[in-house]
Design goal:
alpha+beta; Heat Shock Protein 90; 2 domains; 63% helix; 12% strand; phosphoprotein
Length: 390
């Protein structure tokens, strides 16, 4: 069996495994949804709390409206969407497992075939005998072994990163969920004094739900960026116009928080080739951070200038400095700077990590400097000229 035949057999075999994975994912999805549906129905039918919640919901919404919803296409669409989500989950697990298995299987087979070639008597290897083919093959083996060691280390790092991600996400999601469940329990058990206190509880539940939505959205965006799943449509983009529109969008919020935003742009055209919908997220995040943490001086400075063959955009705020020990890690996911830097704010810890990834997608660079006077985020983007290809 040659190395080429090994690779060909592996490719053909993986196709059948993928078909098997699809079938298994469909079966497991149907079983899972059946179990979940029966569990929910059983809970509602047997639990006093469950039946009480359903009764309260029907009373609150109205029996006629509930019947209209039940006989509308929405339940069917929800069921199909649920099946698609569960199917995607199972198939993703299968795909990741199969991808990992096939990857290491291919390398193991390649190494085995190479070792067979090394030990072949046709080479006539003996101490002191040097054959150019043997030397090249030995070097190839060493390269394969080195590559495998590197890949195993990357796998361990990826596993550690995944574990850290799960731990951080679990912690960040648990906190607002605990609050939501706690206050909803008070509401359902009528443990409030008057309508004012009830409204207070509802406001807290809404606030925590909004935070939960933001956490999930940021996590989804970060995952898409890291897995290169974003569709990037790069076109010539006027940086000055984009920043001006961004400041105008934040105008009301700036006035409400009594901030002054100073804009300073160079006179020459500042055009870069970028996806405007992605790049605007970078500066939205930087401006939002400036509003959160620039508490010592109600001022934000935004500037854009040409620097060599690049465009330099700087967002400056005047809050407490970022500690020097935190600066090297500021763009890492879930990294939180000491809360003493500013007012207590709840965030996902993914904003700057997403911003850094988006800038790197555009072959740019993002940096941060902070001292007692100010904190400056600098974004470098490639200058687009008319001679460049669109």
């Amino acid at each position: 069996m040659t190395i080429k035949s090994v690779l060909t057999e592996m490719v053909l075999f993986s196709r059948w495994r993928i078909v098997t994975g699809i079938i298994l994912s469909v079966i497991l999805s149907a079983i899972s949804l059946f179990i979940i549906k029966n569990a929910v129905v059983g809970y509602v039918n047997t639990s006093v709390v469950g039946s009480g919640l359903v009764t309260e919901f029907v009373t609150l919404v109205g029996k006629r409206r509930v019947e209209n919803i039940l006989y509308s296409p929405w339940p069917f669409l929800f069921e199909q969407l649920s099946f698609l989500i569960v199917f995607s989950f199972y198939f993703s697990l299968f795909y990741l497992h199969e991808k990992r298995r096939q990857f290491f299987k291919s390398f193991d087979q390649l190494v085995t075939e190479t070792k067979k070639y090394v030990s072949s008597p046709e080479i006539g290897f003996s101490p002191g005998y040097r054959d150019e083919r043997l030397l090249q093959l030995t070097e190839s083996i060493n390269m394969i072994i080195s590559k495998m060691d590197t890949l195993r280390q990357e796998e361990r790092n990826a596993q550690r990163t995944k574990n850290d991600l799960i731990t951080n996400v679990s912690h960040d999601l648990r906190t607002p969920l605990t609050s939501i469940i706690g206050y909803l329990s008070l509401i359902t058990e009528d443990k409030y004094r008057d309508e004012v206190e009830l409204r207070y509880y509802i406001d807290i539940v809404y606030e925590k739900s909004t935070l939960l939505h933001r956490l999930i959205h940021d996590l989804f965006e970060y995952t898409r960026v890291q897995n290169h799943q974003l569709k990037v449509n790069k076109e010539p983009l006027n940086i000055k116009e984009m920043l001006g529109q961004l400041v105008e969008h934040y105008r009301i919020e700036l006035e409400q928080m009594q901030y002054v935003c100073n804009e300073k742009y160079s006179s020459e055209p500042l055009i870069t080739k970028a996806d405007g919908n992605l790049l605007i997220r970078v500066f939205e995040n930087l401006l939002s951070n400036a509003l959160k943490y620039g508490i010592r001086k109600k001022q934000i400075d935004i500037s854009a200038t040409q620097r060599n063959n690049n465009i330099l955009v700087e967002v400056t705020s005047y809050g407490n400095p970022i500690p020097a020990m935190d600066l090297p890690h500021i763009f890492e996911r879930f990294y939180q700077v000491d809360k003493s830097r500013g007012m207590h704010t709840e965030s996902s810890g993914l904003g700057l990590a997403i911003a850094k990834s988006i800038v790197e997608i555009h072959e740019g660079e993002i940096q941060v400097k902070s001292d007692e006077e100010k904190t400056v985020f600098s974004v470098y983007l490639k200058q687009f000229t008319s001679v460049d290809k669109i």
